[in-house]
Amino acid sequence: MFQEWIKENRVLQIVLRDSLHQPQYVEKLEKIIRFIIKEKALTLEDLDDIWAAQHGKHEAIVKNVHDLLAKLAWDFSPEQLDHLFGCFQTSWSSASKKQREKLLELIRRLAEDDKDGVMAHKVSYYYYYYYYNYNNYYYTYYYYYYYTFIIIIITTTLLLLLLLLLLLLLLLLLLLLLLLLLLLLHYYYYYTYYYYYYYYYYYYNSNNYTIITTTTTTLILLLPQLQQLLLLLFCLLRKISSLFKLKPD
């Protein structure tokens, strides 16, 4: 009946809402929870609510909740104690380094107050779990960064080789273009040379032919005048000769 009343009225959820940063309030809350434990009304869901009361809160509330659990743990049933360590393991996987230190401190306190060795097995198991997961975590991240580094090196090397190959192809293309340019220049100068050679040869021969033709034509045209000139000279010479001819005695 009492259990149903506490569950229906959500007594524990109400008292866990506020003032967990005040040590005096936490002391009174400890008495309430002890009474609930004594009446065997504390459920595993209630344990989850107590554990969740510290999530996302500042250090004072985290410390007070851990102190509360360290004091109440000795009154828990084996099932409740197993569930509490299950909460430790669940929180461990997503906890930060500082939160893990606080979890280890809480576990240390549980082991420190254990005079009859009741919690020794659970604490040693949890330390083994911590060590195993820490090493797995360490090696996982070690290999993760190691292989990431190797992949980066290989990728960078491949990119550099690809870049070098592209540069070589570009250089080869430039050499081919240069060779093509040299061939074009060669053919250009070759055909230009022969063009001017034949041009000047033809022009020179054409000029000589024109000169000869012009000279011959001129001589042909001047031939009658030359004949007349020669005839005139011949007549003149006869006249002169006749003037100087001696008369007979």
Q: What's the total count of β strands? A: 0
| Helical content (DSSP H or I, runs of 4+) | over 70%
The low-confidence parts are none
Range of strand content: under 5%
The rough form would be described as rod-shaped
Characterize the main sheet: none
Rg, alpha carbons:
61 Å
Report the total helices: 8
Distance between the termini: 206 Å
Kindly name the structural category. mainly alpha
Written as H for each helix and E for each strand, in order along the chain, the element string is: HHHHHHHH
Mean pLDDT: 75
Protein name: Putative ubiquitin carboxyl-terminal hydrolase FAF-X
Keywords: Hydrolase, Membrane, Protease, Transmembrane, Transmembrane helix, Ubl conjugation pathway
GO molecular function, one term: peptidase activity
Pfam family, one: ARM_UBP24_USP9X-Y
Question: What can you see in these coordinates?
Answer:
This protein has 8 helices and no strands. It has 249 residues and is mainly alpha-helical. The model has no long low-confidence stretch (mean pLDDT 75).
